[in-house]
Amino acid sequence: MSLSVKNGSFLVDQKRLELTLSLAPGETKGIYGASGTGKSTLFHLLAGLNEKGFDGGTYTIDGQTMNQLSIRERSTSVSLLFQNPDMQFCMATPREELLFCLENQCISQKDMPNKVAEALAFCEITHLADQPFTTLSGGEKQLAALACCLILKSRYLLLDEPFANLDSDTSQKVIRKLQQIQHKNALGILLIDHQIKETANWVDEWLLIEEEFRTINQAALRQLDQHLRKSLPLVNIKSTSNEKRLSFQNFRLPIRNHEIVFPDLAFDKGSLIGITGRSGSGKSSFLKAILQQQAYKGDILLAGKPIKKYPSPFRSISWIMQNPQDQFLAATVAQELSQGSAPTESDKLLEKLRLQNKSTLSPFLLSQGQQRRLAVASLLQRPVDLLLVDEPTYGQDVTQAWQIMELLAAKATTGTLVLIVSHDVLLLQQFCSQIIDFNCYQKEVADAYTQSHSQVIRHFRTRLSGFFSK
After folding, report:
1. Main-chain phi, psi angles of 189, to 5 degrees
2. Is the domain of 181 the same as that of 312?
């Protein structure tokens, strides 16, 4: 009984990789490697999302090949948590998505409410059950996607960067819960992660992707990670001006069951400011408030002028979104990067971002980590007063994360104020002149109204029937 790959081969960027892997029930293993080396591609193969499968070798799940399993049997055998949770959802809210999962498994309607409630409670997102996905933070979406994987009761779970959008405390809480369910149900877990400190007491064996796959233990991987970090160039970032670029007066930002309440704050021109806090605390909503896309109270001033009086804030502000796919406009990587920059500068950036052999591809065909790098670089050449950056190093290896922060630091030296939302506090400490922790500015308010199970199931069935009748 195991998920087993023997001499399984597949192509990544015209390079052939070969893998031998065995994951037993109740076992946890990790995969570590640079961005774009084929980690997510491998997970798609293991989950059966690539019709061709491996080019060679054998792949079995508890003795059966993927082709021997029906679609329904596959879902109870192996589940995949996507790196980008937005790619995982079909319905409008977490509760509807969980009901949709059960509907596909032909679970009796009378059993659905308890199963949904259990999955929501396990991931501690019961209060988000009926909130539209469009209103959730990246971390909240990641927890909802995890709930969907767990409700399927698969024997093996593939987690692609499961903690990238979560703060450290939430990550540790999720790990403890996964360990509980793993021991209870003998669940085999294979995960991809760049932040190995979060899994130090959980994952003992890793598959390291370099020129080929090789097995490495946790101690050796931590030593490799520390060596990489020590080899990174030193940072000397200072504010270039005492001129106030962005300021807040009597600012209050409502976020469901709490508010962010700021004292009067001001940030200087040419500074890098880090923004951190627990998942769902309102960091992305804060950026949207600056862009006048989210309701708030009080005043936000850009260069001394109330931002509400700007005809279009986007003329003075650039916004690098949390989901890079939301911002791509051009047909190719080169075209996306060349908007607002000279061809020679674009070529240099392509090389620095390790995307020089991807220039003619659609941005949507890149790996998640590559998309993130492209999204950051594509807006750096635009001259603006303020640059808002949401999770720029999400899904990046240590070296690429550092290079992205260097690019943002270089942007700040031109006089642009750069606000960076991130859960990587250590990285923010290296580059930012100031870090704002949203955990320190929260004020609780009354909980919102929650619908009953029967109301939601009726609504869900109406939406589902309409979905398939179009």
Report:
1. -125, 130
2. no
